[in-house]
Structure formats: structure tokens, C-alpha cells
Amino acid sequence: MKPFQHDLVVLFDHDGTVVDSETIALKSAWRLTNEVAREFPTDQYYELEDFVKSFAGKPYREILKKLYPDSLTSLNERDIDRLVAEEEKRAIEQLTIEAKATVGTPEVLSYLRDDRFKYALVSNSSLQRLSACLTSAALTDYFPSKQIFSAHDSLPVPRPKPLPDIYLYAAKCLDAKVLDCVAIEDSMSGVKAAVAAGIGQIIGYVGGTHISEDERKSRADALVSAGAEQVIDRMHDLIGLLSPTPV
């Protein structure tokens, strides 16, 4: 692959990419799901490790739809709305306490800011959730509000990844061509969204703690199959890709 040009716009996913939040949020969602199963029995049960592997990067509404495919006779839309709101509340409570930046991310963001790269955060998460995570992870100074895009709140109607809408919206707001953007994504749904949006370069990231050492190779292969051009397991490696000369 040719070296990245300095005028590219770097679009970071949030959960599991910039902030190591996936395990924290998914553990909270798993606990809630087990409570839900007592009220609404389901044949599908996941141990925590499998829950994390299966649902990383997916909104809780989508998780419930997967667990309760015949929702018309089990969970109705009012139930789902109530549980999605409860999951959000619980996740934010935990993330406010526990969320940390992924290893090397502050240094990479400092490099981008100091070298005058244009970059932004492009996430499925709500703005409230993003604010809680960025504050806990001490990253708020890197992401002013105009550089944060939420598929939940920034669009007229929520349209989460793997739909391309939030990438297209972010590029438009940043006055960037999608072909001039590079996306950094840790999940299949995120990579698929970037592909569908026509993002010029897509980099998979497998350095989050929700991806075990044993799983990294298979996850990297899956991200490449979904459309990532290459995969990194250290955020710092991104600097080398973006630099006009090797670092």
C-alpha cells in the first residue's frame, strides 16, 4: 500500500478503538441480559467470554433482537426500548468509573493534533456515553464537540453501523471526500460501514483488551475479509502509516 498522504482525514471508531470500553460495557450488558432472561426466558445463553466475542461493536437493541428473534411473542417494542435505556444507564455508570484509553492512543492523538492532521470520532454510541468515556479516559481535550459524530444522536434518525450513514455525515461535516478519509475500526460492523460509505482506506485494529491474544489472528483475518486493507495491533503503528517518512 502506498504511504498515506498528510491531507487524509482520520476517522476513529470509539468503543474498543480509541477507548478500551468494550469489555466494561459488554459485561454490564451481559448482566442485564441474564436478568432479562429470568423475566423473558430464551434458549440462547452466553457465557461472558462468548457474549463479548459475539456482540462486540453491536448496539444493545441489536443484541436483544438476536437473543429474541421472535420478539412479537416475547419482547415487544416497549420492552426493548425500556431495556435499551436501562443498558445505556448502567453502561455509562460503569464507563464513568472504569473507561481508559487504549494503549498508545493519547500519543497518537497528540501526534495528529500537533502535526495538524484533521481527525474525528465516528461512533455508534450516544453523545452522553461518548462524553462519559472520553472524560474517564482523559481524552476530552483531543475531541472538541465538532469532531465527535454519533450514529445515535448526530443523525436525524439513529442509523448505526454497519449502515454507512454516520461516516457519510462525518465526511460531509468535515468538508472531506470519503475517498480522502481513513477509518480505524475494531469490529466487523464498523469495517462494513466504512466499506459501504466508500472510505478510501480502512485499517483494522485488534489491540483492545476485548480481543484476546489467541483471538487476534482470527479477528484480523475477519476484518480483512470484511474490507480492511490492513490490521494493526498497536495504535502507535498508525503514526508510521500516516507519516510522510518512516518513524
How would you briefly describe this protein structure?
By secondary structure, this protein is an alpha/beta fold. The chain has helices at 22-39, 48-55, 60-67, 77-98, 105-114, 127-136, 165-173, 188-197, 216-226, 237-242, and strands spanning 9-12, 118-123, 148-150, 181-185, 201-205, 230-232. The longest helix has 22 residues, at 77-98.
Describe the structure.
The chain is an alpha/beta fold. It folds into 2 domains: 9-21 and 100-242, Rossmann fold, CATH 3.40.50; 23-98. The protein is built from 10 helices and 6 strands. It has helices at residues 22-39, 48-55, 60-67, 77-98, 105-114, 127-136, 165-173, 188-197, 216-226, 237-242, and strands at 9-12, 118-123, 148-150, 181-185, 201-205, 230-232. Strands 3-2-1-4-5-6 form a 6-stranded parallel sheet. Helix 6 (127-136) links the parallel strand 2 and strand 3. Helix 1 crosses helix 2, helix 1 packs antiparallel against helix 4 (77-98) and helix 4 (77-98) runs parallel beside helix 6 (127-136). The longest helix is centred in the middle third of the chain and has 22 residues, at 77-98. The chain is globular. The protein starts with 8 loop residues before the first strand and ends in a 5-residue tail after the last helix.
